[in-house]
Automatic annotation (TrEMBL):
Keywords on record: DNA-binding
Pfam families: HTH_3
Protein name (record): HigA family addiction module antitoxin
Domain of life: Bacteria
Length: 97
């Protein structure tokens, strides 16, 4: 789940706030918050600090949620990422130089 969904549920809806009110509380413009809530942007370190200051959940927790989301997105297409495993070259005698 995109972390913007969690922000919507746990910070905005839980506290009966409008997006406009939440944006004002966070000190960002409404469009910035809307982009996050609608999964068009992620939680930046600065936004994580703003969320921590406003709603109490640690900035680290917000960033971990963002990282987990991004990693899950990449892992869904990991089989399409073509990279050859690195192998340490060996000498003819079988020893590394």
């Amino acid at each position: 789940m995109h972390p913007g969904t969690t922000v919507r549920q746990d910070c905005i809806e839980k506290n009966g706030l409008s997006v406009t009110d939440a944006a004002r509380i966070l000190g960002v413009d409404r469009q910035t918050l809307s982009n996050l809530l609608n999964a068009r942007s992620g939680i930046s370190p600065e936004m994580a600090v703003r969320l921590e200051k406003a709603f109490g959940t640690s900035a680290r927790e917000w960033l971990l949620r963002q990282l987990d989301f991004e990693l899950a997105e990449v892992m869904r297409r990991a089989n399409k990422i073509k990279v050859e495993p690195f192998r340490v070259p060996t000498t003819e005698s079988g020893e590394n130089e």
